[in-house]
Give the backbone structure.
Amino acid sequence: MWAVVLAGGSGSRFGRPKQFEVLAGRPVVAWSVAAARKATDGVVLVVPRGDLERARTLGADVVVAGGGTRSASVREGLSRVPKSVEVVVVHDAARPLASPALFAAVVAPLLDEDVEVDGVVCGLAVADTLKRVGDDGCTVTGTLDRSTLVAVQTPQAFRASVLRRAHAAAGDATDDAALVEAAGGTVRVVPGEPCNLKLTLPSDLVLLRHLASGGAS
């Protein structure tokens, strides 16, 4: 069982590459690598080409340059995962507070011989009312039934053979589960963690620093 940790983004919405921002004394990406390390047998870290050297100090088994999209970066990481590996966990480094227990939770159904599933994601129930808007971006055209929706996080775990097949067509998606679903795979959801926030904007870093310093207690 190996993990692919994605830290290859440019941080366009953040304003600068966010994966090396400091969070409680460690780079954001180091938190994700450490959690993956505790839960898996090997870690491939995917970073921008210009960050390869400094990324090699963060504890991953393999460091590789990412591609032009998220999915392309996953494929770069997958290419370095040993062929003998049966389960691959994909995690966004921008979620630095994912716990080792959450990694274990998404992997568990894949290790259960009585469960037929190709992938497992973690997610939270949607608390807000969700509206659909028209092409103008502001006119409401409907209200979604949130009882059937979850907000999906990473880590996400997959049977390695299924994930490789899903990526074989070199498609793009916002997460790997979407590619597995499109390829006909079965994906299950397990409870996510409220503190498993995604670092997208500078204001998110303020909250993450608060939580990392013990603010969640």
